[in-house]
Protein 1
Amino acid sequence: MGHTQNIHRKDPVQVFSIVILVLACVLIILPFLLMLMSSLTEENTLLVDGYRFFPAKLSLEAYEYIFKSSGMFLKSYGYSILVTAIGTIGSLFLTCTMAYPLSRPGFRFRGIFSFFVFFTMLFNGGLISQYMLWSTIFQIKNTILAYIVPNLLMSGFYVLIVRNYFAASIPNEVVESARMDGCGEWYAFWKIVLPMAKPILAAIGILTALNYWNDWTNGLYYITKTELYTFQNLLNRMIQQINFLSSGQASQVAKAVGRVPSVSVRMGIAVIGVLPILIMYPFFQKYFASGLTVGAVKG
Amino acid sequence: MKRKKMLGLLLCGAMILNMGTGFTVQAEELKDINLFTCTFMDIPSSDAVERVTAKVNEIMNPLGVNVHLEYTNVASYDAEVARRLSAGEQIDLMNALDWNYAGFLANGSILPLDELLEEYGPDIKAAVGDDFQYMLDGLTFDGQLYGIPQLSAKHTYNDVLINKDLADKYDMDLSTIKTFEDLEPLMLTIKENEPGVKPIIRSGITFSGTTAVCTFDEDYEALGDGVGVLMDPEGYQLVDFYETDEYKQFCETVHRWYEEGLVSDDISTSGDRVHNYWQTGNAFACIDHTTDYSTEVAGQMLSNQYGVNTEMIRISTPLCSNLIYSSVIPYTSQNPEAAMIFLNEMYKNPELVNTLYYGVEGEDWDLVDGFITGREDSTVFMNCGTSQTMIWGNYFISGVTAGQEPDAIEKTLEYTRSGKGVRTLGFLFDTTPVSSQYAAIQNVLTQYQEGLEFGILDPEVELPNMIQALKDAGVDEFIAEKQRQLDEWVAQKES
Amino acid sequence: MNGTRTKKRKLKKSDLALLVMLLPGSIYLLVNNYAPMFGMFIAFKKINYQKGIFGSDWVGFDNFEYLFKTKDAWIMTRNTLLYNLVFIALNIILGVAFAIMLNEIRHALLKKGVQTVLLMPQIVSMVIVSYMVFAFLSSDNGFINHSILEPLGKGKISWYTQAAYWPFILIFVQAWKNIGYNTLLFLASVVGIDKSLYEAAEVDGASRMQQIRYITLPLLKPAMITLGLLMVGRIFYSDFGLFYQVPMDSGPLLPVTQTIDTYVYRGLTNISNIGMSSAASFYQSIVGFVVVLTCNLIVRRTDKDSALF
């Protein structure tokens, strides 16, 4: 009964929420829109007339330049998707198996291991020693593992967030009763805890996937062959290339590159980086966001 | 649906396999060397690297050397080198650029080369000869040679680049321009009549003090960092550059320009748009550093590139930097002899040099009427090539590229020979004892330098602030240490 | 007696199962995070490659000197701390508020749409964000000067030379960039709240506002504290992209944009001394460590369950 009332009643909280959120969305979209429009603006117009939402003169010059200077987009998309998929699944597995024991109130080593995880968030040995380890001992250079394993596979931050969620949102009695029924910890974890933790799995899953998709540092350190580049490495390389224009001497740069519509190209590169995610996000959501919209299973 | 999934899996599998293969079996008698280098523009694609590597090895394998080439962008070069050397990875040959040579020496990254040069580098010695002996001197440290100088045009001029179309439109007499200050009346004309055009824009990172000062003091020597400098043609007394009258005068001039609206507010953030201003005809002038032997040829090339008529006016005598790009052999080298053999070949074999600079003949470029002409579909490697001409081997034996005069290389060689090095050539300042001060000084410079040198900040107020901030940062100790090292060097040189 | 014994044994058995579960993650942390920590001693060495990293000379705290010997030390520490405090508070407040509001929306499509849009800034790197900011603020071509101030007859503002505006700009950009991320972290907790609690409250006649105030917020408290503590650990670090790239490395803005990370970067670009850069991150970690231990202690005194360990 209460439910139907909810729908018919004009709920001021809901109206307020909608207004604020829509306003926030507008604030977020505007810069993207300006970016899109400037990538489509003719270079000369951009310099004289400035950045506008309705430019006087449109041009596809920037995109022509981008696609001409790199024919590897499709392949690099492939690697990015592959890396993101494998990485996210692996990361969710490690994060949850690490977080679950830390959330169990009776677990004797809970404090020690929580600290063990937390300590990694504060201290790191620096890039050089990590590089030595992965590249010389584990030999991951120029393999797909180079994109997946260093740093990104598990973050102490997410482990502690998930631990916190397990502890706060999944009643201990539920787990205990499952264990009393003779199921082991693994069974309780797999059959009881994980299904109930869908919302946090969805959230961490999305964030991890974004981390993988956005990462270009691993590629920079461990991948030396351009044909193995992921999408972000390709974009990063193009941005470096454009940035050279700002550090070089006019005459030397001019000899080297000739005509480059640099302002609109940069904006174009950004657009090309954002679009695939926007297109893929609804598919993403089908898997992840069900947890976030449907809500938790009742305990 | 199922089939699609299978196909996806297969694709993934193929990709993983694809990523795993990177090994090629080497013949036993060949010595492998890894060359690690940077490009200023773009790094070449893998297939281009493979192509060039194959061609290079075609030349080098008969000499018992097998070369692996690896490129990285100059932006990540220093970090990449530090990482690889710390990890002990084998690099047999790499570049030292003007800013990192002293650092390599200070932390022991590179090997002394005298004996190797003696034994395996006869052609290097021949190419360097007496004319460029000063470069070898410049790379000698504590009596030992650590770098092999790259040979190409080394003198820099300060030039003014003018938009000729606009100059003609207002009937300007460009011959009146002798120093950069002479630009002022011309720029005022532009400012009044051409509202969309920027009277002066920056040229990349320059149009900054150190550049401009050269135009009225030829005895100025920056000595690397440009903080403690020589302004005195006779002695070796270092001064704080930012406290000199010359610097103050320069800042005042530019600040007046700013007040007159000749310099735009955007100038400090506009570095990346310099070329767009030229290409779209929205720039009138800039001050540029060039190494070209002829202003006419250089101006003409720029005109072609920009599609706007430009004229280049030389406002300085040649200035020779005491810092030279060089090739060095890191301590992680497994085959230093083979590296020197390869290096030696770069000073005598035009085919090798052209391949390293411009790619493979018949695939990346063709010889058209004696000019190296890049192919449309291979622009990437040509772009990298342009920076490679400045960092590897002997440019004076390479081919002439399209757009140059037929005898451009000879002319460049001639004019490079005719110049001479600055007095402090060969002095390398080891900043390690004052690295704290150096770090602080860098931060002070970031805060004030551009603002003052672009005229945005008022020198009456901000210049004293900067001088004080430099003092707080320890500039006196910094210069004292530099002076101590310089005096030692002078004493050693004269004895 | 018999009963307690079996109970004890059972407990041990479950401990063992949990330890096995911890194994894969722990191995990863040992390899990826703990093993490289030997690199921290570089902070106390003067690296000479020919002597090797291990054989290089010990120099005590020499590598740390540059962080303190300058007048900027105060400015960069102040900036780093103040910005981080604002960011932590703002991220938690906005994250919670947006998560609750998002949960209030009944319209499924609208909800999904808003969620997607909120995450958009998370997809772009700070470099790209700096281009967007520049598109608005460029003094000659920027949207604000060119299309807003000029038509209004107001003078141009030279954004990149006026330090006074930048604390607000940086705070706005930071919030803009991370809003989706923080919302998502709290949204999971909001969604995870047992629906029956609300239903019971509704029966008692509680309004939506009251439900949020007395049910949602208290239940989110542990999540807020955890997140806050985790962020406090990085209080001496700063987002390099935000403080270096977004202000376009503009000198006059330095008094309000200089942080420890940017100081180190600017100071070391010309020397590339790995000892000195290691020293900086060592210093940042130690301070973060001390601060977080203190905060955790305070939390443990007041609310034992919310403490990190």
Protein 2
Amino acid sequence: MSEHSFPVIEALRDFFAATDAAALKEAACRIAKSVGAEIPAHTDWTAAEYEFNRLFVGPAALQAPPFASAWTESDRALMGKAALEARETYHRLGLAVSGEGIIPDDHLAYELEAVLAMKSVLAAGGGAAEADAPTNDGPGTVRSEAGIADLHAWFVGEHLARWLPPFVEAVRAHASAGGVVAMAADALAEWFESECNATTAPRRD
Amino acid sequence: MKKHYAFLVDSEKCIGCFTCAMACRNYYHQVEGVVWRHVYPLGEAIYPHRERAFFSLACNHCENPACLNVCPVEAYTKREEDGVVVHHQEKCIGCGNCIRSCPYGAPVYNPVEKRAEKCSLCHERLDAGLLPACVQSCPTGALKLVDLATLEPGNHIQFPAGFPKNEKVNPSTRFIMPKVPTLVRR
Amino acid sequence: MSHTPSGLSRRQFLKGLSVAGAASLLPLRLLMPYTAQASTAFSAKDFQTFRNACPRNCYDTCSIKTYVKDGVVQFIEGAQESTFTAGGLCVKGYAYPRRVYSPDRIKYPMVQDGRRTGNWRRVSWDEAMDRIAKKILEIKEKDGSLLGMGLTKYSGNFGITNYGVEGMMSSLGYTTRFVGTPCWPAGIDAQNYDLGDMWCNDPEDMVKARYVIIWGANPAWCSVHSMKYVMEAKRRGAKVVVIDPVFTQTAAKADVFWQPETSSDGALALGMARHILDKGLVDLDFVNNAALGYEEFAAYLRENVTVEWASKVSGIPADQIREVAEEFATADPATIWIGYGMQRHTNGGASVRAIDALVAMTGNVGKEGGGARYGHLRTWGFNYHALIQKQPEGSVGFVGGGGPKGEFDFSKGEAASYTDRTFNINKTAQGILDAKDPVLRMLWVSCKNPFAQDFDRPKLEKAFDSLEMVVTVDQFFNETVANSDIVLPVTTLFEEWTVNVSYWHYWLGINEQAITPMYETKSNIEIASLLSKKMNALAPGSCTFPQDIDTKDWLEKEFNQGIYDYFGIKHWTDLKNGPVKAKLASTASWHDRKFATPSGKYEFRSDICQKNGHEALPKYKEGRKPYDEFRLLTPHTKFGLHSQFINLDWMHEYNKEPYLYMHPDDASEKGIADLDMVRVFNKVGEQRVKVKLTRNVARKSLLIYEAWFGRGNSFNVQNLVDDESADMGAYKTGAPGVAIHDQFANVERV
């Protein structure tokens, strides 16, 4: 894996943002490639789409809502504190979900992209990030490498850690064994574990 | 007597509509399974018709609160100015002493926060001159906020049937009992 | 996952940061919700507030104040400006924030590959509209008309702009409409025969009543805000009598509760009338000067009615009937609240007429604090801009029909050579199955959950299976959605502009868009405009519905000078300051005794009624003959409004599962114990449910509250209710009502 690219995160992001069988297949193949998994040749991608929708999209009650608030907010309500935490995190990075308030900010795909953004900046070197930062950033925008590292550590170790484990558990409970959704869940769990292990706790001097 | 806020539960007016309970949930969004205010149907020994008379109950904001007395980390305080018993969740260590000690089951365990919590009497609303969410919501005036220091004597009682009589903690809630109409059945 | 979070508490993390000089990295208010001493006073300045109005089918139609922060609805409360809502909502209303933010909301347009398979795919709005539009064009091509396309819609959303759904259908051509109402039609017809219109007193004037009879209504559950007026009347000395086959929560608040034989109401009212006549307690001024046919009515009473007979039919002792009749006739004013429950019978209209007569002969019609209260539509004088759309040029329709009708049909019907084809909404299943020339090929469902609300659910499933395409517009995945091909996600009240009024009180409230519509949800009129765009792209001129609409503009188009004058406002934007009440000349309906009947008088004898196949006089009509061992009642629960709210997990906290309520003596005969699981069954179908034993229900009666629980619970009372018609309703609502409470069943332990 190159230092400047994070294919698993990108593939997972695209998988959870998929809207049809073609997008699912494309992202799933990239996930499989990056984690060295095999996707059976006879995979029925339309069936995978049905399963994906039962878990994450609807229209029936979701088996595993891909939103942080659904797992951290006491009452499973969306647009709860976790969504606003995510929003705030994106703002600190000078980013925002397009059309805030339409899709909750804490959708897994957005959160993975935020991790991607932070890791990309860190991999490129914080100094460069600071130098390139636009001057009209909002208040509190993080520019220093240390600040982004802290934000990343918090986002992974605190925010994601609160909901990804129960989320993955729910996905595993409802996904069909050996299917692409189960594979994505495994890849997500594996990635998250290594991300946590590689993340130093934020400074507390 | 000093100012001491209390709930007056008028079961004669109460229609068991659960509006108060949901108004609380609407305001505080408690965890699933965590209920600050519940509407309990009275047993048929107390009111002869099943699920037709109720007590709307939350924390009784006692004069001598068991929760406060047993808390090892001073997570409970009783406000000097109005007697409201406040639980400071950030201090709570989730030991469960208060939950076990309250004779009325007011503090409940929040499995997400891993700490206790209970009705706050909406003190942040009281401080802004507003009524507690539940009291404001009641469509029949069956749930009222009263000051025990100025409450006129009347047909309200402290320990109605069905409500544990624990004089030591001296719960502040007062009750008016429901009536039964004349029944003419075929 | 084996990972343990870094071990740092959020608090330590923040502390560390603040030492590092980056305190603003993450705001304390998000991460430390229970910070400090938590005694920071509430401040309204922390919120944006919006005006909303509950659009459900409910007497109370509450005005809501919505508190929004960060673009998220935080909590809601009742508007303080309305003396009716008075700062509070109900258990259902307070659950609204949960509806918006439930993870289980329908979020996207989706297509199901095979009904009831659960195999759903996401499609864009464009693709959804493409499929629908092509089907519509195919139907037109095949049949030469659009009568093969049907609409079933009722009371799921009474926001005025939602009549744009009917407008959308008209804008496509002449279609098939399910008309009438399962709710209140028999009573509407009855009041129209007697008074010329359905028009009730301001409910707030009930405090002036000296005697209140609540007859077949349960406001303690279904109109919680009205109870304070009943209680205030009682506090001022009025006697409150509740008449109901069930000892309801309202009955528990009465002075006297009568539990008559179900559907014997007409006999009871006539027995009381006879006694009032005998005692000389009739208001002669009213019956001689403001009424038509009183003498004939009196003669009917003398010849055909006795108190003893009424007692025998109803089971209420004769001395009780005499006592209450005398008290009612001598109290001034005295009022009767006629509930919708008591007219859901094969003799419901006749019973309402008998009760109207009782109120009229005692001179209580037209009096403040008096009245035969049923409902009104006096505040509904909007433009119905969204509703009234023109068929495309050259549209072919039904020949010889009268067009759609309904209590909420405000289109001024013009004589046209073609009309829509109409079927009885209370026989949806039969209508679909019987449709010929052309058959019904496609059904659009909006503001309605037929599988939870339409009668004879087993038959409905068969009927749906005969349809080529079903499109359902909804917020949650219910059984109707499961039986659809396409589902379209619709906005909640917080996500659209509209305006609401009540059919009971006299307040008017605006509904502002408080938050951006979430996901890909759209309001009903936006959906109509999208469909129009697609139709016109595929076949120019095939749909007249405007293709680009601004929902706020469309709200404005509903207002007119009449509304402004009636409510004493200058402009609709005044409603942003809170709801307003109509400026009433009197709180009493018919206060000038100018009735809207052909004679201009109160009509004890109605020739129109006779012409429509009923008795001219409010004579007793026998009820439906039992078809099984027990009477089955399936009225409203306090935790829901028809199939809405009960599925929400906030509601689940207080109402976890359905129950059958039955008398302990019947239960012991059947070997049934409290909380046993039982099977309730009849000719329609069966339903398993747990039982609670209570004398609140009469002997030989089974009571189950209608509800859609969702969450995998298939409970549905419509497995036990057939589609038998009520006696009246066709005159004013286009189809007779339905005898929901004339059902029968048996029960056994399982």
